[in-house]
Hints:
A: alpha/beta, Rossmann fold, eight-stranded mixed sheet, 12 helices, globular, B: 12 helices
Amino acid sequence: MATTTVLTEEGTxxxxxxxxxxxxxxxxxxxxxxVMLHGGGPGASGWSNYVTNxxxxxxxxxxxxxxxxxxxxxxxxxMHEDYRNRINALxxxxxxxxxxxxxxxxxxxxMGGATAATFAIAYPERINKLVLMGAGGGGAxxxxxxxxxxxxxxxxxxxxxxxxxxRELIKIFVYDSSFMTDDLLHQRLAxxxxxxxxxxxxxxxxxxxxxxxxxxxxxxxxTLIVWGRDDRFVPLDHALKFLWSIPKxxxxxxxxxxxxxxxxxxxxxxxxxxxxxxx
Amino acid sequence: MIQPTTRAPESQYAQSGSxxxxxxxxxxxxxxxxxxxxxxxxxxxxxxNRNFAAFAANYRTIVPDHPGFGQSDSVVITDEPRDVVHxxxxxxxxxxxxxxxxxxxxxxMGGGVALRFAIEYPERLxxxxxxxxxxxxxxxxxxxxxxxxxxxxxxxxxxxxxxLRRFVHFLVYDPATVPEELIERRYKAxxxxxxxxxxxxxxxxxxxxxxxxLSSRLHEVQxxTLLLWGRDDRFAPLDHGxxxxxxxxxxxxxxxxxxxxWPQYEHTxxxxxxxxxxxxx
Lengths: 279, 281
């Protein structure tokens, strides 16, 4: 792989107006667009979620990491008038409009996956290929009681963000948490506490993710579904539900992998997804 | 659409224990053994001719016929399970060819054989690729035997183009992707060795299962493993894919939608790319 200049958060940081929201994103690379949508845990951002993928993707694509409404350096947003996934998908469309991007490949993880699927359903003319990792929006599990333990921890952490809470969250977020350091936990906590307006908006929101099950068959985009076998946030049977419902789809399951496949299996993930996008 | 490589490399034979095994070989580099699935008229070349060229460009690629298939010696299974007998034959074949270690890509019955090989001869195996393998025991989602599995015996008892076509159509998601020439070619191959059909039928009444249930031994598989499955498989139930990805310590599972029991034929390009990437590490 070619050596490139090391990308930094500061060096790739941008803001754009998306409808009535000011949205932050990181951008690098040229060519067709790949947008990456992060998950919904407290303190999450495009940069933190895709830190091991942004560089490799930017070597082949115009790679955009979008901070979702209510996350990172984007505007806070209370979710009342519609489900979170729909408001997010609209914000993505508005961002693409502002940036003059007609069509994008969309990659989404967890809440970002629900958003990406919603985007594919609502704006089929704006999407090339779709990649979903541990995607939300699958509704009820037929295998596990819901909410899953990870989702319960996220809810508790939004109410009371503490270092110990983050430690317990990261432990079950990934299959092997040995990379976790106190520095990283402090960083996550600091990212969360830096934006009390996001916590406030989240607490006041009356709508979260909707059950997209009946809509999934409308997805026309060629779709790659990626799942961690040991996911404790979104159940593995949802991967099968997506596979059976989305007309043109394939599923890749990593063993020894939790809810963060693009980080936990970054080498295999990057190859798998780059090949899929190029095919 | 990828066209099959129509010309097979010249036939070769290796004495493998008590069996003379027929195989095709091409390419150079690290050895790669490609094991075909069962079914009347099946053989290595028929199974992998859409994939052979891509693999031979990177590996010393060896495509044998199982004992009891193609131009290899026939066999009647009596007291030892078929996967044990075949796994030993391929270990013996590696000895004859002076191959110490190999990658294995294996389909269906061949997958069950490869699993047995991985458990019995771990020192001879590098990476393992299992395409909707047998060996998973009972399904927890579908009644056993499967619809496709039940279409096997009628061909063995009454080997005609019609019974064979019915069987082959169960192999794929969309029968329209199987040209009539393929059925005719397979029928011709099947009728060249009618004793294989009789012996397979006879073996089905042996006091050992057609494929061992290896569920309880999956944790013994040391090889890094890639599993591939067709979502719409009517032979090997999809829940076995989940059973294997839970049971084999280092595994990943890739499922193609709109694919039956023959993804290397139905999704050739994606299949070749995934497997080559995996073998490259």
